[in-house]
Amino acid sequence: AIVVSRDNSPKSTREMAVNEQPLIRAEQKLQVKAGQSDAAATFIIGDEDHTLGNVLRHVLMQTAGTDFCGYTVPHPSEPYVHLRLQTDGSETATSMLRNGLAELKSSCDHLENAFDKAMEEYESKMES
To answer: DSSP string covering 69-100, please?
Structure first.
């Protein structure tokens, strides 16, 4: 069996488990299906799953101007998350998604910094 790397090139060979499935990669990283107006769209994000879908939905629902945000993973064997976003019209769905992704990145950076600081404090206590 061939293990596929992130860039879809063969990485190495090994025996697969009986219930193991080969990793399927998305053909496109992002597709946008426009809604009836600029205030609504469905974003199909490739090579992602519930991990990104749920946290991004949460961030977007906390954002002023979001009327609706939901996500689905059509099937566990498909490497896509469908994120449906509808705004109140004050912003386009695309710009709202960009802002939500920026907010998520900022939150992750803050969490990483807090973790690094806590680890430094813990390691200095362990050395004492």
So the answer is: EEEE-S-TTS-EEEEEEEE-SSS-HHHHHHHH
AA letter at 26: A
Three-state DSSP at 83 gives strand
1 has pLDDT over 90: no
d(CA 22, CA 16): 8
Residue 93 CA: distances (Å) to CA of 80, 98, 126 = 19, 9, 49
Q: What is the distance, to the nearest Å, from the Cα of residue 49 to the centroid of all Cα atoms in its chain?
A: 7
pLDDT tens sequence across 45-77: 999 999 999 999 999 999 999 999 999 999 988
Position 17 confidence tier, pLDDT thresholds 50, 70, 90: confident
